Amino acid sequence: MRALQVVDENETKFVTDAARPEPGPGEVIIRVRACALNFADLLMIKGTYQEKPPKPFSPGMEVAGEVEALGEGVTSPKVSTRVAVYGGYGGLAEYGVFPAALCAPLPDAMDFETAAAFQVAYSTSHVALDYRAKLQKGETLLVTGAAGGVGLTAVELGHKMGATVIAAARGVDKLTVAKEHGANHLIDTDTDDLREVVKSLGGADVVYDVIGDPLFTAALRACKPEARVLTIGFAAGEVPQIAANHLLVKNIDVMGFYWGGYLKFKPEVLTDSLSALFKMYERGELAPHISHRFALEDASDALEVLRARKSTGKVVVTV
Fold it and tell me: Which of helix, strand or coil describes residue 165?
C-alpha cells in the first residue's frame, strides 16, 4: 500500500510498497479515505510527543473511512460501515488497523473529509468547555490560537453555549475566520496587549489556551475571580510556569486537559461527546472549517502547512 512513513526524527518519506497491516483481536482494518492533521502529529514525528510509536510508522491521528475486515472477536462495526476513529497514528496510509471499540459510525450526511476533521477538534473543545470547565451561559470565554484546528471549534462551541467569546489570533485573516464562527471580540496577538484588552472587557471567566507562554501568563493575569483556565497545548513551545500566588489571590482553577488521556481511563466521556456532537452536526448547528486539502502523496506538504501555521481550522489529507 501507499503510505507516508516516519523512519526517524530526521526522515519522513512517501512510499508505495508499505506492508498492508493485519488486524489483531478486537481490531478492524479501515480503508482510509481521509486523515486530518494535528499539531501533535508534528511532535510525534520529532519524537517529543507523550506517545512514541515504534518506527517506521505512519503519522495521522484522525481517520475516516470504511471497515475493510474484522479481527478476531469483532462483531461490530460491520464490514463496509463508514466510520471515524481516533487511532493515535497510522492515518496517512491507504489502510490502517484500529481498535473496533473506538470506531464511531458516521451520520449519513457527513462526508469523509468532514468526519476526519471533526473528532479531535470538536470533541477536545466540547469536553474541555462542558465537562471540565463547565462553561455557563453569560460567561466570558477567552480562546488563544482561535483560528487553529481546536481553537476555532472552541470559539464556535463557546458561542453555541451562550458565552461571550474573545478570540485571540495572529493577523486579520485569522481573526476574520474566528469572527465568522461566533467570536464577539477580537485580539490580534501580533499588535494588541492581550491582558489589557481582556481586562477592558471585564476579564475572563474561562480561558482556553492552546499556545502557552507568553499568552498563557497574560491571560491568567486577565482572569476574573474564580476563573477556570484550561491548558490545552503549548503551540508556541514555551510551557508556562505558574505563580501559585496568582491562583490564591483570585481563587483561580488551572485545569490540565489531554483529550486522548480519556481513552485509557474514561472512554465514555469521549464517546458521549462525539454522540452529542454528531447530533449537533445533523441539526446543522456546526460548521467544520477545512482550509487546506492535500492528496496522500503530498502529505509532507500538508504537514509543512501545519508547521508553518498557515492554516485556519483543519488540514485534511484525502486518500
Answer: strand
DSSP string, 103-144: -EEPPTT--HHHHHHHHHHHHHHHIIIIIIS---TT-EEEEE
Cα distance between residue 48 and residue 274, in whole Å: 28
Q: Let me know: does 35 contact 317? Beta carbons within 8 Å.
A: yes
Look at the block and give the residue holding cell 475493510. 68
CB 28 within 8 A of CB 103: yes
Q: How far apart are CA 226 and CA 185, in angstroms?
A: 22
8 versus 146: the higher-pLDDT residue is: 146
pLDDT in tens, 62-96: 999 999 999 999 999 999 999 999 888 999 999 99
Question: Could you give the angle at the alpha carbon of 39 between the alpha carbons of 164 and 82, nearest 5°?
Answer: 90
Place of cell 508499505: 18
